[in-house]
Design a protein that fits this description.
This protein is mainly beta and 259 residues long. The chain has a single domain, classed as outer membrane lipoprotein receptor (LolB), chain A, CATH 2.50.20. It contains 2 helices and 15 strands. It has a 13-stranded antiparallel β-sheet. A hairpin with a 2-residue loop joins strand 7 and strand 8. The radius of gyration is 20 Å and the shape is globular.
Length: 259
């Protein structure tokens, strides 16, 4: 028994070091992803959102997106719906924070009022899509804990596989598994697990192009809900950067000023 205890004591530091190293490696990858995207200042883009139900019936929405980079905190973003008529003028404003709950508001033109999204509702579906409110924020490093899983190939590309665990207590997810492209440190696929640790959704991101010789942005995102059979497809286009947006363009009054 004494010899067995001695052997265990010898290997225990090795096991602890391994656990620390996979967590540290996961964090390093996340930090590199964040570092490579710094300095874009602001971004505007146009989107087409296609909602598909289990029977493959679909509805199409046209959207504009504006993002403001914030030093020392998460980014601010504004999403504006231009069509169809029943959602035209609806606007969603989000302030991402690194270590505290995000601030989010939804402007409903039919009611002519701004509705604050409560902390307990961030896991709910955004405008009937398969994207949750918490999916629509910048992915600040501090929002998660990480673990490096290994290296793989995905669609012929070399990737890191990491797990990240939301630190937001009211997140709808227990964990996310992310496939990160080794060349440009952008996510190619993410699997989302619900609070019961069952696979909920898979997000696939394709069509990356580089802008300003630095920033990689996708042309398509596909979110599939495995539990409902529903899908949401986002097609991105007309990216522009450093357009002169300021914090005033992202205050709560901006929700009512959208054109």
């Amino acid at each position: 028994m004494k010899r067995l205890i001695t052997v265990l004591l010898v290997f225990l530091p090795l096991a602890t070091a391994h656990a620390t190293s996979v967590e540290q490696r996961g964090l390093e990858i996340a930090k590199e992803m964040d570092q490579r995207d710094l300095g874009f200042a602001d971004q505007v883009a146009e989107l087409v959102m296609i909602l598909r139900n289990k029977q493959n019936d679909q509805s199409v929405r046209k959207i504009r997106n504006r993002t403001l980079e914030v030093q020392g905190d998460g980014d601010k973003s504004l999403v504006i719906f231009d069509s169809p008529a029943d959602v035209k003028g609806t606007a969603f404003l989000s302030y991402t924070h690194a270590v505290k709950p995000d601030d989010q508001w939804l402007y409903l033109p039919a009611l002519k009022r701004v509705k604050r999204i409560s902390s307990s509702n961030k896991s709910g579906p955004f405008m009937g899509s398969e994207f949750a409110y918490e999916d629509l924020t910048s992915q600040e490093v501090e929002k998660y804990k990480y673990k490096y899983i290994g290296d793989e190939k995905l669609d012929g590309r070399d990737v890191f596989v990491i797990e990240r665990y939301p630190q937001y207590s009211k997140s709808g997810y227990s964990k996310q598994v992310v496939w990160v492209d080794k060349a440009y440190y952008q996510p190619l696929k993410t699997k989302f697990y619900d609070r019961k640790n069952s696979l909920l959704k898979t997000l696939t991101i394709t069509g990356y192009k580089q802008y300003l010789n630095k920033y990689w942005r996708p042309s398509k995102m596909m979110m599939i809900n495995h539990q409902t059979g529903k899908q949401t497809e986002l097609t991105w286009s007309h990216y522009r950067f450093r357009t002169g947006l300021t914090s005033r363009d992202f205050d709560r009054n901006a929700l009512k000023r959208v054109q």
